[in-house]
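input
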Amino acid sequence: MADVPEPDISPELFAALAADPLAAQLGIVLEQVSPGYARATMTVGPAHLNAAGTAHGGATMALLDVVHAAVSNSHGTLAVAQDVHTEFLSPGRPGDVLVAEGTEVHRSARTAVYRIEARASDHRLVATALARVFRLGTPWEVAGEDDVVAMSAPPPVPPTMQLPQVEAPLPTPGEGTNPSGELPPPDELR
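output
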């Protein structure tokens, strides 16, 4: 998307922004956060697929939202989402590594707007979002590497709540469930 304009944020703020239980369950990895920029990745696996065999819109949107949260809080001021408009442009395929990057479009004392794009390994634009936040004016409190106090930052995901890795094959339609025959390959779904 754009060059990273400033050095990365502090390790303490990064740790606070990366402490996202849903992201952990979905295998979303926050890779980099700088003021006004964030990047995360997600490998499309069996648990991320919809009935058509492509990346579920909810999984793709979760990746965009993790980046939205990181980029909008990258200045150290607590920000909460007000609106996210997403366009799904190309299907994510099983095995694709989706890379989402978010950049700041506009920021004032109370609101900010961000553009987030998710691309597949082959550089296809899978989804794009334009997102707005309300900036609460409350600074993130990061005391130190071992003591992150990030405005109610979520605790680590307990093992009992973690989704197991699913390595099962995709289900096939039963008799009578798809009268037109086999599903076309994902690229032909339009």
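quick obs: Residues 57-72 form the longest helix (16 residues).
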